[in-house]
Amino acid sequence: MYPFLRYASTIAYAALQVKRGDTLTFKDTSEIKLRCRLSDIDNFLEMNNGRVLTLYDMGRTDFAVRTGLGKQLLKNRWGLVVAGSTIQYRKRIRAFDKVTMKTHIAGFDERWMYIEQSMWVKGKPCSSALLRTGVTEGGKVIETARVLAALNQSDWKLPPTGYVAEWIESDSDRPWPPVG
């Protein structure tokens, strides 16, 4: 089941931080702390890979609220979409582990923002995800220039480079739907 209460508390805590003046720009990295709960683990007593992706939603939500994007989403009746992702797992997260999640923008193009997220336990990276995300209006992805303008960051440029650019290129070769 989706952790609606946890999601709501993430929004409330991020809003409280904004009220206290702890805001971010799109150039910053969001950090939130959480604990691996019994409802997060699988039969191997580690965080379920599906739950990892769900908890990454919380990190992106904190980032959106603290950067002011959340306010613009409400004001303009925009939505958010994830259009692709890749994830790597390196270290198990066990029940009751304290987790630090980091979220930042790794690059953007005319249409998509590429978000990089990671989870850390005791200073060691456990997983890392790269997501292709977009802002929608009326069910269609809008230009990132509009989003940046709404946040008074029109002059910011961050083209995808390195492995992000390589992932974009290789993903464009992927057949859809997969043949099989």
Automatic annotation (TrEMBL):
CDD domains: 4HBT (cd00586). InterPro entries: HotDog_dom_sf, THEM6_lcsJ_thioesterase. PANTHER family: PROTEIN THEM6, PTHR12475. This is Thioeseterase.
